[in-house]
Specification:
about 160 residues, mainly alpha, three-stranded antiparallel beta sheet, 6 helices
């Protein structure tokens, strides 16, 4: 009987932990990013941000990836625990002054504030290998196709 009670407590905790997560639709995420001021931030378009979020997490706010060095990456933009947030395990710089678990919910304004710090650093969008591999120099207009919004892709980034 005690085992059943323990199982129920664990299942309840897991359900509570995942209730507030979200896998965003492309256009819904694009609108949130635009509203938060990411379109044109330091020269990067909404297409850049959508491309990164797609290849990093599949637009899933609950995504966590563990790295061979012991650090982990969290949330829709996969922010690394060694640099950007504190997971309570990995030694960290915690440059965004936040707990990593705060990156795992549907409320992405704190994620956005942190990615603004990331791209303001020396590496810019190169901080994400996925941006370099899949987004940089590519036509990012496809990411906004069918989305009813004002953001336009950065055409100069495609031709430069």
């Amino acid at each position: 009987m005690q085992v059943w009670g323990t199982v129920m407590v664990i299942l309840t905790m897991l359900m509570v932990a995942t209730v507030d997560t979200k896998i965003y639709g492309r256009c819904n995420l694009a609108m949130k990013l635009e509203k938060a001021g990411l379109n044109g931030f330091l020269g990067y378009s909404i297409g850049d941000w959508l491309c990164v979020a797609h290849y990093e997490s599949g637009f899933d706010t609950s995504f966590v990836d563990h790295n061979p060095d012991g650090s982990s990456e969290y949330g829709i933009f996969q922010l690394n625990s060694a640099w950007w947030c504190d997971n309570g395990v990995t030694p960290t710089q915690n440059l965004c002054h936040m707990e990593c678990r705060d990156l795992l919910n549907r409320h992405i304004l704190d994620d956005i504030m942190c990615v603004k710090q990331v791209v303001s650093s020396r590496n810019g969008m190169n901080a994400w290998d996925s941006w370099t591999r899949h987004c940089y120099g590519h036509d990012l207009s496809e990411w906004l196709k069918g989305c009813n919004m004002h953001a336009k892709p950065d055409i100069k980034g495609i031709t430069s």
